[in-house]
Amino acid sequence: MATERPSKLRVFSLNCWGIRFFSQLCTERYEMIGELLGREQHDIVLLQEVWSERDFLFLKRKLSSSHPHTHYFKSGVIGSGLAMFSRHRIQDALLYQYSLNGYPYMLRHGDWFGGKAVGLVIVDISGLKAHVYVTHLHAEYSRAKDEYLPHRTVQSWELLQFVRHTSCGADLVVLGGDLNMHPQDLGNRLLRSHTGLRDCYTETDTFDGCEDGHTLIADNHFTNNHDLVPFEKGIRIDYILMKGSQRVTVKCESLSTTKGPVADKPFPYSDHEALTAELSLLLSEDSRQHGSSGPLAVSEQMDVVTEAHAVVKEGLCQTEALRDKAIRLVLGALLLLLLLLAMAFLPCSCFCSYSTLGLLGAVCMSLLLSGALLYLLFITHIKVLKETEDQMMLTSNELQTKLTGCRLSGSSSFDGSPEL
Fold first, then answer.
1. What is the pLDDT of residue 296?
2. Are 243 and 267 a contacting pair, CB within 8 Å?
3. What was the pLDDT predicted at 305?
4. What is the rounded CA–CA span in Å between residue 174 and residue 156?
5. DSSP assignment, residue 274?
6. Distance (Å, rounded) from C-alpha 269 to C-alpha 25?
């Protein structure tokens, strides 16, 4: 039974593509983004790829009157890129940096240097406790041969675990960001099925935006069409997800996206399209949005965990193979170094100058150091993958117990977010 009139909550999310000295027209676009946010007066603004704290401070000054409450999440070598602006008071904040995030030697991708993470802010909205999350997951650089799928799967798992274990007691949960996953990708299904979060695009009453809700489109001036292959028109990888509680019913009344070119401007806000969701909040005594699921839902959760477990297992095998290559590199460099030392003290050294031996020794030391660092990196990744595998096994066993109990009792009422 409803007890109060519904209130509105407008949420904005955008990947700003703010890599200083690399992203095109960065300063001009931040000026445009600031003007947009000041004009539209969103309640909550979730930004990704704000890599420079200087740019965050610029937006903070520009939005000081419209969004007085802000938080910038710091992590990694160049930062997490995550920022949050709010018209409502922020009570608390928390950051979790993902355990796996690519490789430091993949310089052309560069994800490792950005501390990809999930940020949480607890916001007081007219007496309601809203847990608002902003995140950015590892990019998918090749649909056909996705070498980062295990990393993104682990990130999705850590994201859902973080949301599940930090959203207890929240009246409202909102998650926004660049997930770098298509709607039916494994990590996306894993996140939604185990948290009860609902996609605003599929839940909205009205939609105004790009075809099929795409947020990376061919018509955008900054888009590299090679990134869209084999999807010529565009892809949907940016999301706003929502979830109510026993106290609050949440509904998405409208969702909109930008559509590439901006009126009266020579270029778009970013290479991604922005999302704006208008949510309706209704205090209720009998809401069941906190999650109710029967055997079918639990079975679906088991299936997606099993699929994710297989991906993590494959990633573990690949990482163990990389570790073995690093070991061979270290051993090879040691053997060469010993050979050079022997040559330096044997009569045959007259055929090779000491300067040449010194240069070859420096090369061997570089290979030895590189192999040792790679070994440490891969060992760390292996531990993370094994830990994720163990957690998935625990969840799978718990779901199996619930499913068995459900079938025996004939009950169709379960908690959609099983607590371990």
1. 65
2. no
3. 97
4. 16
5. P
6. 10
- Token pair, residue 294, equals 């029967």
Q: Which residues are catalytic?
A: 272
User: How is residue 376 written in tokens?
Assistant: 């440490």
Q: CA quadruple 180, 186, 192, 195: dihedral positive or negative?
A: negative
pLDDT of residue 294: 59
Please spell the DSSP secondary structure of 368-397, one letter per residue. Answer: HHHHHHHHHHHHHHHHHHHHHHHHHHHHHH
Residue 273 gets which letter from DSSP?
P
**Residue pLDDT, tens place only, 159-198:** 999 999 999 999 999 999 999 999 999 999 999 999 999 9
Output phi, psi for 64, to 5 deg.
-60, -30
Distances (CA, A) of 162 to 102, 120, 233, 234, 311: 20, 9, 34, 30, 20
pLDDT of residue 411: 46
Taking each helix axis from N to C end, the angle separating 186-195 and 149-166, rounded to the nearest 10 degrees, works out to: 10
* Nearest partner of 357 among 365, 349, 346, judged by Cα: 349
Separation in Å, CA 148 to CA 103, 139, 223, 394, 411: 9, 8, 21, 24, 40
Whole-number Å distance between alpha carbons of 18 and 33: 11
Residues 61, 75 contacting (CB under 8 angstroms): no
In degrees, to the nearest 5, what angle opens at C-alpha 202 toward C-alphas 201 and 208?
40
